[in-house]
Design brief:
Elements lengths: L3 H10 L2 H10 L3 H5 L3 H17 L1 H13 L9 H37 L7 H39 L21 H8 L1 H36 L7 H13 L2 H11 L6 H11 L10 H28 L4 H9 L4 H29 L2 H8 L16 H10 L4 H25 L10
Helix pairs in contact: 2-6, 5-6, 6-7, 7-18, 8-9, 9-13, 9-15, 10-13, 11-16, 13-15, 13-16, 15-18, 17-18
Subcellular location: Cell membrane
Main location: membrane
Protein name: Maltose/maltodextrin transport system permease protein
């Protein structure tokens, strides 16, 4: 039998540097050097299988991503772009596994050098299962996210740097990389510049005004119904939540008919009897169309906010209001110092998402009047917001590259705003840090 001193000397001879070099040369060799035979053989088999089956495909994918094809009519640029993005994602995943292989070999070699003895096979399987269980459970979701979120995101970003449009559509024509030309055209070419400024400004106004109105109306009604003097609270709450129960697209289509310039109930039964004439041009004038859409969104959005605020208001302790009464606080002071801060603190993340949702609220814009009416000198309608403009560029004019450019700008705006506001509202802090 070997003495503990001999075991310690054997461990000292075990070199992490050697294990690292071997694992860099070929995945699994470092594990074999560490006498982790099952793991080492598994990694070797995986790398051999990868080199034999996927290396040529990945090389073709990277070639396609770099060139987007060389022979018009034969090479399909968009198909090559898709294969190239998938190859790029695969390479990143394989590189991450290879780095893990090197890190694992070096880490285990250091433990062996310090006198650690490998566990028996049964104990190794148990420890490995305990340590990897959370990763095994999250792996399907991660894999789904890669192909449902990350892949389309990378594809759309890369598309913004090409000239993919109606006149450069494969397989008849090849798509080329054009760098930042699309971004430059968006802010320099008159028709693109005017349209972008107009649509972007209206998108901001629409988001701020419509969302603020629905939040303000929901808060006002919630505070009103929560007043102790109001009777039949359950019936009133049920009535106020009813607009939420009706599918939004049904409500929008009904309102579109009601706001029709010629036969709509708003003009025929309300506007004309009051002011005469032919009524207001709700669908043919951009200003009136925008006012109508804001009112409709306020109607659609306030029930959710009302229900949200109603639940929060009932959680506020009555002792706070009684203490305020003792101090002689007015109704406005109690609302400003107690009700409003408590409600905003509890619901701020959800309210922020209301702004982000309305920023990309395609349904109401398209279903009401398809982003119209037309505007002279622009390739977007008077009520088009960025998301509906992207839709038209994609499906009506087939200008995919410019649609991708605008999508990138939208994504940066929404994510930047949401991240900043979440930080400000302390949504990312732990409970003990608040």
């Amino acid at each position: 039998m070997s003495s503990p001193d001999n075991k310690q000397k054997t461990g000292k001879k075990h070199s992490p540097k050697v294990a690292t070099i071997l694992s860099i040369l070929f995945a699994g060799l470092g594990q074999l050097y560490n006498r982790r035979y099952i793991k080492g053989i598994s990694l070797i088999v995986i790398e051999i299988a990868f080199l034999l089956t996927a290396l040529q495909s990945l090389n073709y994918g990277i070639w396609g991503l770099r060139t987007l094809g060389t022979i018009a009519g034969t090479d399909h640029s968009i198909r090559l772009l898709v294969i190239g993005v998938l190859s790029l994602i695969t390479i990143i995943i394989v590189a991450a596994l290879y780095v893990f292989n090197v890190y694992d070999a070096r880490k285990q070699a250091k433990k062996i050098q310090n006198g650690w003895k490998p566990l028996k096979l049964k104990d190794t399987i148990r420890v490995a299962y305990d340590n990897t269980f959370p990763y095994l459970m999250t792996f399907p979701g991660l894999l789904l996210m890669v192909f449902v979120v990350i892949f389309p995101l990378i594809f759309s970003v890369l598309l913004a740097f090409t000239n993919y449009n109606l006149f450069n559509s494969p397989p008849r024509n090849l798509v080329d990389w054009v760098g930042f030309d699309n971004f430059v055209e968006l802010v320099t070419v008159p028709i693109w510049q005017d349209t972008f400024i107009s649509v972007f400004a209206w998108t901001i106004v629409w988001t701020v005004v419509a969302t603020t109105l629905q939040i303000a109306l929901g808060l006002f009604l919630a505070v009103l119904v929560n007043d102790p003097r109001v009777k039949f609270k359950k019936i009133i709450r049920t009535i106020l939540i009813l607009p939420w129960a009706v599918p939004a697209f049904v409500t929008i289509l009904i309102f579109a008919a009601m706001f029709n310039d010629e036969f709509g109930a708003i003009n025929r039964d309300i506007i004309i009897p009051l002011i005469g004439g032919d009524g207001l041009p709700w669908l043919s004038d951009p200003l009136y169309s925008r006012v109508a859409i804001i009112m409709i969104q306020t109607w659609l959005g306030f029930p959710f906010v009302f229900a949200l605020f109603t639940g929060v208001l009932q959680s506020i302790s009555k002792d706070w209001y009684e203490a305020a009464d003792v101090d002689g606080g007015s109704r406005w002071q109690k609302f400003r110092e107690i009700t409003f801060p408590h409600v905003m603190f509890a619901t701020a993340p959800l309210l922020i998402m209301q702004y982000a949702q309305n920023f990309n609220n395609f349904n109401i814009i398209y279903l009401f009047n398809e982003g119209g009416p037309p505007v002279r000198g622009q390739n977007a309608g008077g009520t088009d917001i960025l998301i509906s403009w992207v839709y038209k560029l994609t499906f009506d004019t087939n200008n995919y590259a410019m649609a991708a450019v605008i999508s990138i700008i939208m994504g940066l705006l929404v994510s930047g705003f949401a991240f900043y506001q979440f930080r400000k509202t302390r949504s990312f802090k732990e409970e003990g840090e608040i």
